[in-house]
Design goal:
single chain, alpha+beta, two-stranded antiparallel ribbon, 4 helices, globular
Amino acid sequence: MINQKKNFMDYIPVCNPVNSWDVNKKDMVVVHVVNRGFYNWIAQKIFKRPKVSHIVLDEYGSFVWQKMDGKRTVFDISKLVSEHFGKDAEPVVERLVTYVQILYQNKFIGYVKQK
């Protein structure tokens, strides 16, 4: 059997349904993360940490977040970013791949299986 490597540009990112999100008055995406778990509970009780963290994404992050619909691949999103922001987004592929990987590592997104 041939071992086929998957191309990251073919991955289909989707927002994690555990976290809710909305768009604020400045058209920036705000992701609402509920701080769960024993250590978060202790931090909430002792250090008065919030139960829900509100993470505001920047202009590029908000644009990318809204394009992750479970149908578009990373490559499709990179084309949209390039069209919308032009040369300001260069180098598009490297920046987008790094951003998507960070979102995945922090469990803000997942990947839909390809058909």
